[in-house]
Amino acid sequence: MSQKLKYFFSYRHSPPIHLLLKYTGTEFEDKYYKCGPAPDYDKTCWFDVKETIGLDFPNLPYYIDGDVKVTQSNAIMRHIARKHDLCGKTDAERVRIDIMENQSMDFRNGFVRLCYGTFDTGKEAYLEVLPKSIEGFSKFLGTHSWFAVKNISFVDFTMYELLDQHVLLAKDCLKDAKNLQEFLKRFEELKAIKKYMASTRFMKGPINNKMAKFGNK
Fold it and tell me: Which reactions are catalysed by this chain (predicted)?
């Protein structure tokens, strides 16, 4: 087994990457670095070794596939997806995937800032603008099964995670986006995903690390 995925553990770890690996039937080994307790959340287990692994830009998560070492979540997702033809089959699909890859990153970054920084003072403001983001994703998906239109791609794995997490934040946030509700159900019914989610290896939560202000339990 040459594939190895490594990350900080104490929360639902790298979920889109894990889901993609499971969907593609890729055998891989998990390794995790665990933060210390509050209030310092010591990370020396990672800092002490990060420069010894041979990564161009030491960061977590990282993925080792034989001689290939990849950091940055989107780069890891693309690397796995390229090997399994999940990066779009036409130019039109590839354009939609590129758009969603970057739009979903903006969405994720805002959510991360909320969960780890401004949750106490910024939740209300975040929820006020959330419907506009949801509306945009709903319009982009339209009546299609997947965000690239006909064919599932790696961005569907990213969007599943983000929408699922936002339902935990605000359970009715998709009430006006039936197609996104159906997208979540469709994704969860994929044979390999359904099997993984029913297994003891799947972690439903927490969705964030222990120092987060939301989703850490």
Answer: RX + glutathione = an S-substituted glutathione + a halide anion + H(+)
